[in-house]
Amino acid sequence: MKPLSLVPPDAARALAGVIFDLDDTVLDHGALTEAAYAALFRLRETGLALIACTGRPAGWGEVLQRQWPIDATIVENGAVALVREQEGDVSGHRERHAQRAGASRVVTLDDLDREARRARRAELVGLANDIVRRFPAAALADDNDQRVTDVTIDIGEHRHVPPEDVQKMRAELRERGVRTLLSSVHLHLTRDPSDKATGIVRLLAARFGEDPTRARHRYAFVGDSGNDGVAFAAFVLTFGVANVRAHLGKLSVPPQFVASLPMGRGFGEIAQKIAELRKNAPEP
Q1: Rg (the chain; Cα; Å)
Q2: Considering only CA atoms, which of 51, 46, 50 is closest in space to residue 12?
Q3: What are residue 72's DSSP bridge partners?
């Protein structure tokens, strides 16, 4: 891993966009600071597309699409995405759940139709309830009513579940054919095959017309933890905020460049560096 001072100017200037995680990357323990919010506008002003990618629920993604200067939000670890569309736009995926917001609307992009999605998630809710009954240190996370694809068990946000119990839960769920994803605070249960990297690439191809291979070079990724490992491995230009150092043991491919500051302040550092390199690009 290298400091931001060594970011190649040509790599920053060639970018079409920046993709970033939320928790402990842009957010400080769930809070959005003024500096981090300003960093998004700084990147936007250089002509970059901005895409959030998070394990947080679809309900969060809708709020972000309405209030943040971003082009898309990938939620629930790559399973679905949310975008804004102008009224009358009929492009995109099969299933659309639209809510009007003036001249534009927020649309959820999902490869499953509504009924199939509800049935799949109902099964996961039943499994999750069975797990937390037998592991009383755990509980269903308080964001589940905003989710559409996965179910989350609180293992570290408001509860403390021993690591050995987390491993037992994951082993049992695997036996039942359920995929699990582990973040710093939640155990995610899903039957979707997506992860953050595949969700990002699918969105870039479907909505931005990107070639999946070229997209790896045209977009940078910013993250902070082991849950971002697949995205660190998928993209050529990658960044970590300083707190990523605590998670290096979980990363087979670490980020290339690391900020000196953690969380939102680190994201601000990264944004400032990219903006400076792009601003100082020679005229073509």
Answers
A1: 19
A2: 46
A3: 51, 83
Mutual angle of helices 114-134 and 163-175, in 10-degree steps: 130
Question: What is the CA 104 to chain-centroid distance, rounded?
Answer: 23
How do residues 76-109 score in pLDDT, each as one tens digit?
A: 999 999 998 876 554 444 333 444 444 578 999 9
Taking the C-alpha atoms of residue 11 and residue 273, their distance in angstroms, rounded to an integer, is 12
In Å, how far are 20, 129, 192, 193, 235 from 166, measured between CA atoms? 27, 15, 20, 21, 30
- Residues 206-228, buried b or exposed e (16+ Cβ, 10 A)? bbbebeeeebbebbbbbbbbbbb
| For range 32-44, the mean pLDDT | 97
Q: Are 54 and 73 in contact (CB under 8 A)?
A: yes
Q: What is the pLDDT of residues 49-67, one digit of tens each?
A: 999 999 999 999 999 999 9
As a dihedral over the C-alpha atoms of residue 241, residue 246, residue 248, residue 250, rounded to 10 degrees, the angle is -110
Ranges of H-type helices in the chain: 9-13, 34-45, 58-67, 114-134, 163-175, 196-208, 212-218, 229-234, 263-279
Instruction: Determine the Cα angle at 1 with ends 249 and 31, to 5°.
Output: 70
* Torsion, Cα of 184, 216, 150, 163 (10° steps): -30
What would the two tokens of residue 237 be? 């230009």
| Cα 104 from Cα 106, distance rounded (Å) | 7
Q: What is the pLDDT of residue 42?
A: 97
Q: Residue 27 contacts by C-beta under 8 Å, 6 or more apart in sequence?
A: 36, 263, 264
Tokens of 256: 């290339």
